[in-house]
Amino acid sequence: MNRWLDAVERAGNRLPDPAMLFLALLLLVFLVSGLLADMSFSQVDPRSGEPLAIKNLLAPANLLEFFAGLVPTFVNFHPLGVVLVAMLGIGVADHAGFISGSLRALLAITARGLLTPMLITVAIVSHTAADAGYVLVIPLGGVIFLAAGRHPLAGIAAAFAGVSGGFSANFVPSSLDPLLAGLTQSAAQLVDPTMVINPLNNWFFTVASSLLVILIGWYLTDRVVEPRLTGTRLDGELGEAGVEGELQPAERRALRWALAALLGGVLLLVVTAWPAGSAWRASDGALTSAAAPMMKAIVPLIFVLFLVPGVVYGYVSGRFKTHRDVVEGMTRSMSGMGYYMVMAFFAAQFIAAFGQSNLGILLALEGADWLRSSGLPLAATLVGIILLTAVINLLVGSASAKWALIAPIFVPMLMQIGVSPDLTQAAYRVGDSSTNIITPLMPYFPLVVMFCRRYVTDTGIGTVVALMLPYSLALLVGWSLFLLAYWGLGLPLGLGN
Length: 497
Prior knowledge:
This protein has one domain. 69% of the residues lie in helices and 0% in strands. It has 24 helices and no strands. The chain has helices at residues 2-13, 18-36, 60-68, 70-75, 78-96, 98-109, 115-125, 132-135, 137-147, 152-165, 176-188, 203-228, 237-241, 249-273, 293-296, 298-317, 323-335, 338-357, 359-373, 378-393, 399-415, 421-434, 445-453, 461-488. The longest helix is centred in the last third of the chain and has 28 residues, at 461-488. The chain is globular, with a radius of gyration of 23 Å. The chain starts with a helix and ends in a 9-residue tail after the last helix.
């Protein structure tokens, strides 16, 4: 397996720099859209109900429109703002020493053998806070493992597996649950207009799946991924920094004050969000729905909840003397984001062009049509949905966008043979999560490459893909079998079924 993964890493690292890879893919989309624009397709675009047509991005008007939107496409690239705003607060906390001090205190009371499952569990729960896990838990995975004397890339891999590979597993509901359920209900009502889908129709299954993801991630991190990293030398800035010793008295005092400030902020948030009429809640009273101000403000909340204890820790410990030290922490965090911003620019342009061309929709609908006409047994059809979703996921990153495209095909099709929309949605979620961690087209993938380069400077796409491939394959196979067993035992997938 190591030889095979080494070959994957070498092949992947021979690819151009990620920024140039996105540029090459952008040019390819332009070329293919021009070649296919004059062709007719039998598929119907589920968004408009009209026959699907490929948009020729090389046409002068479309080309000028694309270039006119170059800056807005970059500025409005969702992960960019999420990452930069969160990193401002995290940068202050890191510069002050609050993150390092907290981790050293945590490691002093955590058994070394339980470090991996603890990290993956935190990564899974982070789904409740939208994209927070990508900018918070994944880099902390590297820091935690380094502080424990373990390889930081193994920590990043474990956290990435929990955050993204286990994206459809969680112990608590997240904003994704009602979003997907709403699309499932719309698709089901094409056959049964009275069908109502509970927003937590997969919750029992996602809770059980969380345990599966933790066990798979724990085994692979400790027995496969980290042993393979034994010969990988740390030569990055953070890798060379080494591990700090025990907390000094001044640091312990600063940590107590900082944690008190953090606890105070969390309590204030709970108190203001608890009332039924709280401004943090959506119009229906939900706190975790996509429309709730609480979910919309997750990134600013991360910024504040790291900034405040970071500032407190810095002043109490003596590391901060004036406000200039706070600004320096923000500046240092932004200076380290330069490489990511370059990659994000090209990634944003490619994703926008790919969506405008309708090439992703064409691939999704063609695959769904083939699956529908294959005449496979029911269990094989469910596995087919998982595999097809996993493949489409390599090209279309958004979970809701993919489900909006293929739910109107899969859900009514399987309802005709007695499969509930809840089970079809669960199969989709398994496939959607499993390959998140091996596709460079996932918006946060370049960020993970950058996190790894802080420790190993020659990290490339191939390095991260090789790190994550064991998780992806194990989740794809293990989770599929788990779903079939869960369905075979007749266990309820969630509320309302």
